[in-house]
Write a structure and sequence with these properties.
Length: 177
């Protein structure tokens, strides 16, 4: 991991902790801010993927996947923006669904990495299990929007701490002479 990636993880981890503190301080306002931030970042990432497709991805093997990923990310961002206009319960439900989906995808990636005897599959499985436990805990406390906000804030803190731990992990570089 180079210095730029470490700096990126430090900034994202700090923003996640700031978002968690905001949610803990005032769950109603914090959830709106987080959903708005998620909406903007998903739309921006989707547009970036689509622009990349038209610049270079269409000439690559599997380039259509980049295009479809961009469309899906942009659609999820627009949906997150539309959910903001609904009640806080639906905003939290959307965020928990996003957390659960990310946990399932991480679990599938860990399984694939384990199949190919990769090195980081244990970390991915831990991360996926924690994401899924947080999503299930939020569903268990579905009647209390405030409690769901606190659980979600705990998940954000876990994600931030895992990013900080990822910064500290040493990666062996292979140099070809």
């Amino acid at each position: 991991m180079n210095l730029r990636q470490k700096l990126f993880n430090l900034i994202i981890g700090s923003l996640l902790i700031l978002a968690a503190v905001t949610i803990i301080a005032d769950p109603v306002v914090g959830v709106d801010i987080l959903a708005g931030f998620l909406s903007i970042t998903l739309v921006a990432a989707g547009i970036r993927e689509i622009v990349f497709f038209f610049q270079m991805g269409r000439f690559m093997v599997g380039g259509k996947t980049v295009f479809y990923t961009g469309i899906i990310m942009m659609d999820a961002g627009i949906l997150a923006g539309a959910v903001l206009l609904m009640s806080k319960f639906y905003v939290l439900l959307y965020l928990v669904g996003f957390f659960a989906f990310y946990g399932v995808v991480t679990l599938l990636r860990a399984r694939e990495e384990m199949h190919f005897e990769g090195s980081g599959w244990k970390y991915r499985i831990l991360y996926a299990v924690v994401d899924l436990v947080i999503a299930v805990a939020c569903v268990f406390f579905i009647r209390s929007t405030e409690m769901m906000g606190y659980i979600y804030a705990g998940g954000l803190i876990f994600t931030a701490l895992s990013r900080f731990a990822l910064m500290r992990r040493r990666v062996v570089g292979v140099y070809i002479q």
